[in-house]
Amino acid sequence: MTELLKIEDLTVSFRTSAGRVKALNNVDVTLDEGEVYCMVGESGAGKSTLALAVMGLLPQNSEVSDGRIMYKDIDLLRAGPEQMRDLRGREISLVFQDAQAALNPIESIGPQLEEVILEHSDISLRVANSMAQDILYEMGLPDPKRIMGQYPFALSGGMCQRVMMAMALVLRPKLLIADEPTSGLDVTIQAEILHRLKDLVKEQNSSILLITHDMGVVAAMANKVGVIYAGTVVENADAVPLFRRPRHPYTWSLLQALPRIDDPGRRIEPMPGNPPDLINLPDECPFVPRCFKAQSQCREQPKPEFREIEGRHFVACYNPVEPPALED
């Protein structure tokens, strides 16, 4: 398969009054054409920072101290403002987590959607208006012409999310970054949005970097999964092997904390403790205080290197879990 996005050794921090927040630490991600890569982890693990870094939208108090983000043959970290402006929307699109906050509250939906089209196309406003209505209809919004005249505050959360999806997909980008696209939505709308994303991959051979903390969404969508903890990717594998045989203690604990409809009597094991302070990250593995597999080596040696322990299954752990294979 052809590589579309390759993130290598990405390290991002934020300057704050309390100190330097180490948001991403030597992160590696590879996404192929026509693939869905899910990045999963707890809130504050660095997932949204990764999305903003790819889009070149990190805030002014951020600092990228190391790494590369290669989209095709373009290093996005070193691309100029005009080049990034040309790529955003046309080649790479981002669906924000809070759609209602991302939309302009004092402008109706139509001009916001048309602006994306006109910015990257040499077409008339009439054609852009027609394209905007077509994509809103594709996203399952009834009466697109009426929606075009509405303001974001007049729409429900689910409708705003579909509008954001329409903006991201109207120019058929090769790479879609979706940051918690189903967060806060009811299960019916969640299923519809995930179905639209799957259609995009099939019809356009596009790729999706899907950021979520919902393991159910991961199971439904992912070809590959990266598990991130405290700004560090601790496990990376194809989706089925990761769910059937999770190897990092953090991934194992995440799955043990989920109810299973095929085993309603199984005891749910909540994960103890809290994520570490990203301002004062330890030199050793950051998961040690919460880890049921921690040993002296984990506390005495530096953070473990990412290594392949099975075919295309990578783990950063000195003492990985050896579980029996779980049922599909």
Name some characteristics of this structure:
328 residues; four-stranded antiparallel beta sheet; 12 helices
Would you mind describing this structure in some detail?
- The protein contains 12 helices and 12 strands.
- The chain is α/β, with parallel strands linked by helices and 328 residues long.
- The protein has an 8-stranded mixed β-sheet, sandwiched between helices. Strands 2-1-4-5 form a 4-stranded antiparallel β-sheet, covered by helices on one side.
- The two termini are 26 Å apart.
Entry summary:
By secondary structure, this protein is α/β, with parallel strands linked by helices.
* Computed Rg: 21 Å
Number of strands: 12
Task: Give the overall pLDDT as a whole number.
Answer: 90
What percent of residues adopt helix (DSSP H or I)?
25-40%
SSE arrangement, N to C: EEEHEEHEHHHHHEHEHEEHHHEE
Residues in β-strands, percent: 15-25%
Structural class: alpha/beta
Major beta sheet summary: 8 strands, mixed
> Can you list the strand order of the major beta sheet?
6-7-8-3-9-10-12-11
Query: Total helix count?
Result: 12
The unreliable regions are none
Q: Can you tell me the overall shape? A: globular
> Kindly, what is the distance between the CA atoms of the first and last residues, rounded to a whole number of angstroms?
26 Å
